[in-house]
Every structure is written in structure tokens, then in C-alpha cells.
Design brief:
heterodimer; A: alpha/beta; 5 strands; 46% helix; B: alpha/beta; Rossmann fold; 2 domains; 7-stranded parallel β-sheet; 11 helices; 44% helix; 13% strand
Chain lengths: 135, 318
């Protein structure tokens, strides 16, 4: 209970599929993490600004619309503009394998696809936060 | 790389978002390293007007806070919002969704929103809420809005933490008897009836007004009579009236005996809460390892609950 990992879960753009993001939020809650959910239809810039105010360890962005190759670069750009380097960026949803490779090269820490079991999601978040260390 | 809290402070004073956010996290985690810095923050704070917003779950607090903040922004004020949501009693985790209702404020640099989980604290606020208020205060926010968790009938701590307390009532949640019960309604400096676009809002407004009229005849010399303001976040109606009621209450407190009494009450609450926290930490440390054994004797009815309680706090000093 004392680990206090904070995660911001977000949906960006014209993507109304929020069942997945809510399931993930619930898994993280049940594992004892604090989850801030932004709701649907946010811009990448709004999501980053919220993550900075909330000082989250992890920013998780769910995309099932196919817009990941435009959304993530905008998120990375905004993080850089805000001078933030210690928020871990996670992606999730329906994303083709070749794009997963490209996104990770771009700096997205991990992509969790739609068939990822809940415990793997929780373990991945904990591992990435542990690897980053205290801040 | 970890930046020491004392090095964050100058950046907080300049209003730098990332530094404010980080110091808030350390206050929330009760990190001993930031304690002296929070002391420094406290000594510099005291300029902001703190507004507490409370009400039952689903009464429209978050949406109302969002529209209210936008109205206060029009007058050029900088707004800090602390939105509190409950932690799970089982896992300790939380899902904080107040931001969903506040999307209209996104992109405004004059608004800072922070979500906080209660982490087992009762009373409607989180343990570190008042530290967070101080941090936002010294960072230059003029109004700080604390939105409590959705409360029941009894969580009244917010009145001891804020200068002005708004109690939000939504239409359709009870009859006129609810309005004369003791508890949450008594702490309001301003009553807000939300969702006033709904037809049944009229009866909620009149129930509240009747309750207040009873109070006035019982204590006719009360210096402040809580107004009842009807707002519709949907239609953006009633917010000019709400802002002017807030300003009136702020003026009422400024330089008056009532204002000084309020400040004393807030300070006293803060002191008692802090003492309680310190006691709880010591208690948890010292009782660790003894709880199960004493509970066994209690469960087998070998001893009674009072004897068990006495035994548990044995040696903690008077």
C-alpha cells in the first residue's frame, strides 16, 4: 500500500472505445495504484499537461483508432517542451507489430496490446517504475 | 536524479508547474525529507482564499467546480483545484475521475488541477490536502478550491479547512426532513443547488430556504446568513450570483472577528489533525506484533473490548 505509484490513463483524439482503458484502470486500482483518468477525446498536449500537474510516474495512452503514429510523436514533443524526462510513457490498444517497433524506437517505454493479461499490465508498470528509480 | 525539496521551493515560488507537482507528491507521500520545506511553505502561506466544496456523490460537484473556476478566471484570478476521490479500502488503490468533468479548463495556464486519493483518511479529505493548499498558495494561486469526496451526512471536516464552505445539494435526493437533519447542511456558508435546470430543483431550493428561515428565527443575531444559490452547470446559469456570494463572504471575513475566529479554527484543526497523525504513526509502530495476540483473547471473550484497548495502548505514555 505504501508504494504510491501514480498513473494517468488517457484517451486521445476521435476514439470512443473506452472499455479497454477502464478495465486497465480498474486492474491498476485493484493492485493498489492511484489512477487518474482523463476521459475521452483529449488532445495529446492536454494529456501531457495533466500528467505533469498530477506528477504521475506513468502516462498510459490507449489508442484503438489507428492514430497512434500521429498521437505518440505529439505526446513526446510536448513532454520535451515541458522539460519532463521522468514520466514513463506506455501505449496500449490495437497497434500493428511494425508500429510497435517504431514507437519503442521513438521512446515509448512499452506497448501493451489488446490481449495482455491484467497481471502483466500491473507487473510492467511496477517494473518500469522500479527501473526508473526514485525521483 | 532526485532534486532536494529545498531546491524545489524557489521554483514553486515562481509558479513552475513541474516543481509544484513534485512537491505535492512528496507532501502526499509524507516524505520526511520535505518536512522542513513544508514548514517554510506554511510560514509563507496565507494569502489565498480557500473554498471547500462538498456534497453527496453525484451532486455535480466536479462539474460545478469546473464552471466556477472558469468564472473566477474571467476576473483574472489564478485557480488551484484539489479534487479528492476515495481510495479502495481493500487494495489502497484509486480511480480518480474528477478531471473528466473539468476538461473545459484544459490548456489554461492559470488553472492547476491535482487529484488526491483519501488513502484511508475519513472526513472527506486526504491527509495531505492542507499541505497541498499551502503549496498552491505560495505558488501564487489566488483561489484554492478543495473538492471533497462525495460525502454522506457526517463528513464535515472541510468546514475546518476552508474559509468559505459550499455545500452542493442536487434536486431529487430527499424530502424536507433531510433538510432539517443535523450534519452536513449545517456547515454551509453558501448553499448551492446544482442542476437547477431540472424541474424538481424548485422544491430543493424551497426546502433549504425553509430550513434556513427556521435557523434565523432561532439565532436571529447570526452575522452571516448562508444564501441559497441555484446553479446549472449545463446552462452555465447562476454562476455570477455564486461568485458574488463568494466575494461577499470573503469581504465578511476580511478584518472581522468572524474572520479571525475562522483562521483560529483552521489552525486548531490543523494542529489536532497533525497530532492525530503523529499519534497514529507511533501507535502503529508500537502496537505492531501485539494486535493479533490481544485480538485472539478478545475473540475468545477472555477479556472485554475496553481491557483489550487498554492493553494495546499500554506503554504509549499518558
Amino acid at each position: 500500500m505504501a508504494e504510491n505509484i501514480r498513473v494517468l490513463m488517457a484517451k486521445v483524439g476521435l476514439d470512443g472505445h473506452d472499455r479497454g482503458v477502464r478495465v486497465v484502470a480498474r486492474c491498476l486500482r485493484d493492485a493498489g495504484l492511484d489512477v487518474v483518468y482523463t476521459g475521452l477525446h483529449r488532445t495529446p498536449e492536454e494529456v501531457v499537461d495533466a500528467a505533469v500537474q498530477e506528477d504521475v510516474d506513468v502516462l498510459g495512452v490507449s489508442l484503438l483508432s489507428g492514430a497512434h503514429m500521429t498521437a505518440f510523436p505529439r505526446i513526446m514533443k510536448r513532454l520535451k517542451e515541458r522539460g519532463v524526462s521522468d514520466i514513463i510513457l506506455l501505449g496500449g490498444g490495437v497497434i500493428p507489430d511494425e508500429d510497435v517497433v517504431a514507437l519503442k524506437k521513438m521512446g515509448v517505454a512499452e506497448i501493451l496490446l489488446q490481449d495482455t493479461p491484467p497481471n502483466v499490465i500491473v507487473d510492467t508498470v511496477r517494473r518500469l517504475v522500479r527501473e526508473r528509480g526514485a525521483r | 536524479m532526485r532534486v532536494p525539496s529545498r531546491d524545489l521551493l524557489p521554483r514553486v515560488l515562481k509558479g513552475e508547474i513541474a516543481a509544484i507537482a513534485r512537491l505535492l507528491s512528496r507532501a502526499e507521500a509524507a516524505d520526511p525529507e520535505c518536512r522542513d520545506t513544508l514548514g517554510e511553505v506554511y510560514s509563507r502561506a496565507g494569502k489565498a482564499h480557500v473554498i471547500g466544496i462538498t456534497g453527496v456523490p453525484g451532486s455535480g460537484k466536479s462539474t460545478m467546480v469546473s464552471v466556477l473556476a472558469a468564472h473566477l478566471r474571467k476576473a483574472g484570478h489564478k485557480i488551484g483545484i484539489i479534487a479528492i476521490d476515495p481510495s479502495s479500502p481493500y487494495s489502497g488503490g484509486s480511480i480518480m475521475g474528477d478531471r473528466i468533468r473539468m476538461s473545459d479548463l484544459a490548456g489554461d495556464e492559470g488553472v492547476f488541477i491535482r487529484s488526491m486519493a483519501t488513502r484511508g483518511a475519513l472526513g472527506g479529505m486526504a491527509r495531505a490536502t492542507l499541505d497541498a493548499v499551502d503549496i498552491l498558495d505560495v505558488a501564487g494561486f489566488d483561489y484554492i478550491l478543495i473538492e471533497t469526496v462525495g460525502v454522506g451526512q457526517d463528513e464535515v471536516e472541510i468546514a475546518s479547512a476552508s474559509h468559505t464552505t459550499l455545500v452542493v445539494s442536487a434536486p431529487g435526493l430527499g424530502d424536507e426532513i433531510q433538510a432539517i437533519k443535523a450534519g452536513i447542511l449545517e456547515i454551509a456558508d453558501i448553499h448551492v443547488v446544482s442542476k437547477s435546470d431540472r424541474p424538481d430543483a424548485r422544491s430543493t431550493i424551497s426546502d433549504l430556504k425553509q430550513m434556513l428561515a427556521l435557523g434565523v428565527s432561532l439565532e436571529s443575531n447570526a452575522a452571516w446568513r448562508p444564501p441559497v444559490i441555484a446553479t446549472s452547470s449545463l446552462k452555465r446559469e447562476g454562476f455570477d450570483e455564486l461568485v458574488s456570494a463568494l466575494e461577499k463572504h470573503k469581504t465578511f471575513l476580511a478584518g472581522s472577528e468572524a474572520g479571525r475566529a475562522r483562521s483560529r479554527k483552521i489552525a486548531q484543526f490543523r494542529m489536532l489533525k497533525t497530532a492525530e497523525d503523529l499519534l497514529r504513526i507511533r501507535f502503529t509502530e508500537r502496537s505492531a506484533g501485539r494486535v493479533a495476540a490481544i485480538a485472539d483473547r478478545l475473540a475468545s471473550r477472555e477479556i472485554d473490548p475496553y481491557a483489550a484497548g487498554e492493553k494495546l495502548i499500554e506503554g504509549m505514555g499518558a
